[in-house]
Amino acid sequence: MPTALWIAHVKVHDDAAYGEYAKRATDAIASHGGVFLARGGAHEQLEGEDRPRNVVARFPSLAAAHACYHSDAYQEALSFAKGAAVRELSLVEELE
Q1: How far apart are CA 45 and CA 31, in angstroms?
Q2: Which domain does 86 fall in, by range?
Q3: What's the CA gap between 93 and 23, in Å, rounded?
Q4: Which CATH number belongs to the domain containing residue 55 in this structure?
Q5: What pLDDT, in 10s, does the model give residues 35-54?
């Protein structure tokens, strides 16, 4: 079964609220087997709109990434991000 990537591009407007989201999301993601590959850090925007915070997490499967997003724990975490940031989030299945 192929693994999956959770890819987020974020522009934060409220650091305190988004920090609470990140703390809670970390636990939710880990509980679904997610491991961070990139979380913030240096980046270079080559095309499209720049979102200065970029996050990539690997999950054991697309189903695990999907289940994480829809879990009660992640949805609770997400409530802190709403209004605190502009986000784009994609789930992408990796090649086998």
Answers
A1: 31
A2: 4-42+50-93
A3: 25
A4: 3.30.70.100
A5: 999 998 999 999 999 999 99
